[in-house]
């Protein structure tokens, strides 16, 4: 097939000066022949020209308001044609290595869709998911009022958007301290000691939100914590800062603590690490493939080999919002 004679839905829309949705509707009604190349809708240029000529012949017998009516059709009626086209890119957002392994697994199974990574914190990831900047978000956001992870934040940050919350793992989180914990840092209130300085995580990260929620519930003034405004962008970065003596305490997960020499880990609680997918995206096969991959025994064994994760609920749908 000569590519110059084959047009996309967008190109046809530009030629006819209509919306892409109207092109889908014309194909659906059989007024404009269309076909798929892989997962993409294509229309021959010759068929577009024939359609234009037919409209010239029958213009007097056609209701001139039909296109306007077509464009006002409910989204529900257009969804079937939209399924002809899958997304070109899938962007998985979050900072854990589990997501890198997931992306690699999906890349091995698909060739026509790019699987990309965005390394930003949980809060910002959910925000980006709401604004369609990414495809899938990870989250480990603790809500102090419910003592639960993620569900409340997904409902608040993606209002009116039904989502699946799928578990990836559980991780221990706690304080990173110097070897031997010389300052005896064991509780949240210990952070206010004048003898210690902390290294914080950036706003929007799950650990930063955990800290701020704990400070709120314990009526601790953040301004009394030395180093509260010093921010690093990852668990590894804050752990290395403590190892270098740039601060006395930071907060992160146990897995990273075991990878950095010169620090000890003081466990505080177990956190839940989930994946958030919009239910409306399940019409695309790629999203179903991602869920099937997470639920597979092979993926579970691969994550087990990394160590440091509790995988008791991996792949389970824990909530629908």
UniProtKB/TrEMBL annotation:
User: Which residue numbers delimit the PBP domain?
Assistant: 104-295
**What superkingdom does the record give?**
Bacteria
An example Pfam family from this entry, by short name, is HTH_17
Q: Which InterPro entries does the UniProt entry name for this protein?
A: DNA-bd_dom_put_sf, HTH_17, PBP_domain, SinI_DNA-bd
Q: Which GO terms describe its molecular function?
A: DNA binding
SUPFAM superfamilies associated with the record = Periplasmic binding protein-like II, Putative DNA-binding domain
Could you tell me which residue ranges the Helix-turn-helix domain spans? Answer: 7-55
Q: What is this protein called?
A: PBP superfamily domain protein
Protein's organism: Clostridium chromiireducens
């Amino acid at each position: 097939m000569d590519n110059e004679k084959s047009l996309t839905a967008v190109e046809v829309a530009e030629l006819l000066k209509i919306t892409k949705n109207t092109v889908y509707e014309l194909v659906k009604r059989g007024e404009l022949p269309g076909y798929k190349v892989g997962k993409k809708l294509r229309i021959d240029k010759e068929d577009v020209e024939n359609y234009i000529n037919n409209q010239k012949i029958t213009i007097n017998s056609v209701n001139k308001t039909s296109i306007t009516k077509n464009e006002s059709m409910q989204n529900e009626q257009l969804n079937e044609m939209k399924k002809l086209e899958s997304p070109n890119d899938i962007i998985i957002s979050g900072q854990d290595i589990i997501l890198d392994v997931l992306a690699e697994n999906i890349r091995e199974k698909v060739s026509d869709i790019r699987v990309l990574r965005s390394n930003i914190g949980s809060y910002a990831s959910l925000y980006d998911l709401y604004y369609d900047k990414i495809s899938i978000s990870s989250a480990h956001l603790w809500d102090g009022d419910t003592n639960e992870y993620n569900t409340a934040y997904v409902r608040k940050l993606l209002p009116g958007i039904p989502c699946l919350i799928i578990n990836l793992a559980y991780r221990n989180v706690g304080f990173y301290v110097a070897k031997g914990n010389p300052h005896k840092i064991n509780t949240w209130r210990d952070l206010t000691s004048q003898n210690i300085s902390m290294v914080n995580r950036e706003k929007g990260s799950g650990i930063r939100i955990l800290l701020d929620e704990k400070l709120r519930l314990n009526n601790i003034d953040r301004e009394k914590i030395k180093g509260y405004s010093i921010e690093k962008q990852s668990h590894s970065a804050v752990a290395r800062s403590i190892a270098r003596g740039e601060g006395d305490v930071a907060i992160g997960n146990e897995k990273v603590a075991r990878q950095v020499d010169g620090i000890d880990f003081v466990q505080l609680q177990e956190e839940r690490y989930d994946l958030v997918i919009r239910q409306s995206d399940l019409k695309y096969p790629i999203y179903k493939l991602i869920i099937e991959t997470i639920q597979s025994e092979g993926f579970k064994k691969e994550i087990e080999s990394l160590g440091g994760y509790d995988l008791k609920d991996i792949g389970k749908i824990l909530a629908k919002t």
